[in-house]
Amino acid sequence: MTNELVGRSTRWTIHGERVVDGSRRSRLSIADVELPDGVRFEQYVIRAPRSAMVAVLDGQERLLLMRRHRFVFDRWVWELPGGYVDEGEDPAKCAVREVEEETGWRPE
Predict the structure, then answer these.
(1) Which of 13, 17, 49, 100 could form a disulfide with 31 if both were Cys (CB 3.0 to 4.6 A apart)?
(2) d(CA 1, CA 8)
(3) Is-contact 7 36, C-beta < 8 A?
(4) What angle do CA 27, 30, 33 make, to 5 degrees?
(5) For residue 7, what is the enclosing H or E element?
(6) If DSSP codes are grouped into helix, strand and coil, which group holds residue 100?
(7) What phi and psi values does residue 97 have, to the nearest 5 degrees?
(8) Tens place of pLDDT for every residue, the chain, 108 residues?
């Protein structure tokens, strides 16, 4: 890489953002952005609260998964347990709490 490329900024410029829809669990907005080369366009942005997901293994290295139906694509899928981190909650404690709430198992 040349010194010219190293010194060049790769940051996007955000000229503005407007919220399209929002709730406690997510917010959809459209941002007016500009690339370092001057190209400007609108970019959809989805923001969600902090979340924790965990891979739980037993003594035989078997992985705990949940089977759930997801209506968006109408399929049954295997997922890791997890959920949203409450305000002020430690993410590791959230992960343990979510595993127990969703599966009935309490990880050590």
Answers:
(1) 17
(2) 11
(3) no
(4) 130
(5) helix 3-7
(6) helix
(7) -60, -45
(8) 555 555 567 899 999 999 999 988 899 999 999 999 999 999 999 999 999 999 999 999 999 999 999 999 999 999 999 999 999 999 999 999 999 999 999 887
The whole-number pLDDT of residue 25 equals 87
What pLDDT shows up at residue 65? 96
Give, in order, the Cα–Cα distances in Å from 98 to each of 22, 55, 67, 71, 106: 24, 12, 15, 21, 9
Report whether 83 contacts 98 (CB < 8 A).
yes
Domain ranges of the chain: 3-47, 51-103
| Residues ≥6 apart with Cβ < 8 Å to 102 | 66, 81, 83
- In which residue are the tokens 């989805």 written? 46
Query: How long is the chain?
Result: 108
